[in-house]
Amino acid sequence: MADESVQGENSEVEEETSEKNPEEDSKEDVGKDILDFLEAKFSGSTFDAEAFSDFEDELSITIKPDSIEEVALLLRDDEVFKFTMLVDLTATHYPDDDLPLHLIYQLYSIERNRRVRLKVKLQEEQSIPTLSNLWSSANWMEREVFDLFGIDFSGHPDLRRILLPDDWGSHPMLKSYPIEGKGERVYEKPQRKEIGE
After folding, report:
1. Domain ranges of the chain
2. Per CATH, the architecture of 27-154 is what?
3. Which one of 29, 56, 103, 167 has the largest count of C-beta atoms within 10 Å of its C-beta?
4. Residues 101 and 123: beta-carbon distance below 8 Å
């Protein structure tokens, strides 16, 4: 009888905890303060926002290209958020999308221990303002993205290739780039010299 009563109490506790899952509740509101803040400042500047399912403290926001500089400056200088570090800047290519190039900025607030990911979707050969005037670390990161994806960062102080030779002529991280290359560099196999020749 005692065992049954204990089991009954445990089942009631389990039902209560299953109804109130703090992880699910917190994920619904992840970054809502950031999103509301940006939408109030830049009406219509965002496309969509979503929280990562595996990191409750991270938020991904897709914004329009012409808003990136103002949004980044606001997130960096705002006293509430203080996203003072540009951790990473990279890109991806989805050739079947209407906007195939996705530029990704990873921001981090050291003081608040929060992260936010800004995404910008671009047409091929569409330019976007540089953020090297906001974060010096963006300088080489933008050069790498330009080198590998061909994205032009307008206003960059020194936009040139950083990994490949200047005369490479193409951008190898695009999906249209063949795996074997386009023949930019053709190496002839050296002939083996036999002993006695």
Report:
1. 27-154
2. 2-Layer Sandwich (3.30)
3. 103
4. yes
